[in-house]
């Protein structure tokens, strides 16, 4: 497509939906001679969220215009910015960012073979680059460095020297990546102007700068990884997307600081060229828009209801997120996610969070060997279950009364193995069979299903807690099981979860067949 575009058409594609361009004439001049070389950098700090689709959609525009695009995973910057990424996690964060950014690009149809991916520390630790950092630091004043990073670098009462180095390194990246232009959010404008001011002092060319507007978050402010309520994560479930959009700031007729409307403008229209408002026929039925301004006008005039806008964005957003969720459903990427972003409640120390860590539960895959009625209680059943030990465990359960014995025989189930054994009508129960259930008349109960290919004894863990060690035996006086069990639920997609995190084995997630919204006991 790019071969058929004129320089003016390429310029229009490169600059559409941008808030500001510094160095327009330079961009036009380059396009008269060759393709534009541009880079976009991202510090590998918090987890990317759906606002990252805004730069992704612009990268798609750049590629359509024939640009040579480099994506920089700025790991050193992530550390310099008040150590938002600890040194020991830098490599894992880069791997996570690379996987998730590539998944985002694939979900919007961007060919990865047209992109160049670079890690900051691959060139920022070289002798030449380091000398240029020293040269630049002898020219830039503390005032200029602090001012440049004011909207990007975390602002604290006693700032570290590393935060003052951050803007200068970002300026030097333009030279070492050999680009004509840098692309970023308008919040980086002061860093861009610092680069324009000081790079020529080092004998390097002044680059052009392409700036996206900052998309409002769900609360009406900037969407931020550090503000949970303002963002939708790329790996959020459909239920979470619905819940967060439902709470999003979206007043009738208000088009200012409207994150839902901005997502339509800066992501959905550039990618699809149209947007469909889905609504009940009695309110006019579905309407397809091919120009964003018409959506904005109808919303401002309250011809489009906030509920219809949110539900329509929900559909479109889930279509973008589903390939990413699917890719990150693999055990390898789930492990990468939990290692790159370890849950603070997993750390040891004996505090309250430790008491409630689900890794304390010894849940395993088991195989039912036999099922029979308790000899002294009609409502209880005895199961012999293989949990990967030399001898099967005896489990006494009342839930089996709601499940046919034939259904349980020889099937794989989930078993909690570190409760204190207790006698039930004279027979010792050595574990607990875990099932999904919904109260009612009659009560509905289903066994939980491990992933296909599972074997007795395999560990079951909560996503993000796989490295924790279970207690040898849960102390019944501490009520650990009872406290954790409250948050064990079945999602609307029939996935077993604890506090919205998946129950997993190394082969995938735990599910049940039909009991959406049920409890696990």
TrEMBL record:
Q: InterPro entries, alphabetically?
A: aa-tRNA-synth_Ic, NA-bd_OB-fold, Rossmann-like_a/b/a_fold, tRNA-bd_dom, Tyr-tRNA-ligase, Tyrosine-tRNA_ligase_regulator
- For whether the record's keyword set contains ATP-binding, the answer is yes
Compositionally biased, Polar residues: which spans?
336-347
Q: Which GO terms describe its cellular component?
A: cytoplasm; nucleus
Renumbered residue ranges of the record's region Disordered: 335-358
Taxonomically, the superkingdom here is Eukaryota
Q: Report the residue ranges that make up the TRNA-binding domain in this protein.
A: 357-461
Instruction: Fetch the NCBIfam families from UniProt.
Output: PRK08560.1 (NF006330), tyrS (TIGR00234)
Q: Write the protein's name.
A: Tyrosine--tRNA ligase
Taxonomic lineage? Eukaryota, Metazoa, Chordata, Craniata, Vertebrata
